[in-house]
Design a protein that fits this description.
With 86 residues, this protein is of the alpha+beta class. The chain has two helices and four strands; from the N terminus they run H-E-E-H-E-E. The chain has one domain.
């Protein structure tokens, strides 16, 4: 069963780009509390340049809202094979 924010993200991207996919994985990170492991979800959608131009501001704002909701230090977006940290 997918977490609610993953479902919300799939719906958000699907509405704008005609579809989206989620991939579950395991991530590790180091923090002040020490090393940790967690389940991560990569949610992706593909679109044309026109579609991206039309929705990029919405996508960035959505990712920032999820970052805040999850209390993450950063959220990553990949656009045209370039990583953007928010």
């Amino acid at each position: 069963m997918l977490p609610p924010l993953v479902k919300k993200t799939l719906a958000f991207l699907g509405e704008r780009f005609g579809g989206a996919t989620s991939i579950e994985g395991q991530g590790v990170s180091n923090s002040d509390a020490g090393p940790g492991s967690e389940t991560v979800y990569i949610v992706q959608a593909f679109t044309t340049q026109t579609g991206m131009d039309r929705h990029i501001e919405d996508v960035v704002n959505f990712a920032k809202a999820i970052k805040e909701a999850l209390k993450q230090e950063a959220m990553a977006l990949e656009v045209d094979r370039q990583l953007i940290l928010l």
